[in-house]
Amino acid sequence: MRRVKIKADTTLQYLQVFNGIFELTDKEMVVLAKFIDLGEKNDVCSINTKKLVADMLDIEDYNTLNNYVKRLKDKGVLLKSKNKYSVIPYLLPENNVVIQITKSND
Predict the structure, then answer these.
(1) Residue 55 belongs to what domain range?
(2) What is the number of domains present in the chain?
């Protein structure tokens, strides 16, 4: 088995590695990276986090980010539990992820 190490200096670069799986737009990846970097672990999409992200991305109304939250949830990168959102574990840069690609024998 051959191992390939990919260096990712930022959360955005880390997320780009997985983008072939989730097919996020560039803006969705930027928003998700900001949620991960600024969000609270138990609710990455809290009102306070949305306000911070909106300010950083020059979005006038932080409620606009609700559209991104819905799309990220629909694409499977955010999980909703009791009105709180979390990022799926292997998209968190602090987790050690190994990706193994195999060819099926169809």
Answers:
(1) 11-85
(2) 1
Residues of the chain with confidence (pLDDT) below 50: none
pTM: 0.84
Task: Tell me the three state secondary structure of residue 91.
Answer: helix
The tokens for 29 are 């990846």
Task: Say whether 4 sits in a helix, a strand or coil.
Answer: coil
Write out pLDDT tens, residues 39-52.
887 899 999 999 99
What does the pLDDT read at residue 104?
76
Residue 12 burial (CB count, 10 A): 16
Q: Is residue 31 part of a domain?
A: yes
> What's the CA gap between 64 and 86, in Å, rounded?
19
Amino acid 41: pLDDT: 78
Structure tokens at 88: 């799926």
Domain assignment of residue 48, yes or no? yes
Return the H-helix or E-strand segment holding 78: strand 78-81
Query: Do residues 65 and 31 touch, judged by C-beta distance below 8 A?
Result: yes
Report the candidate in 61, 89, 87 with the shortest Cα–Cα distance to residue 72: 87
The amino acid sitting at 51 is K
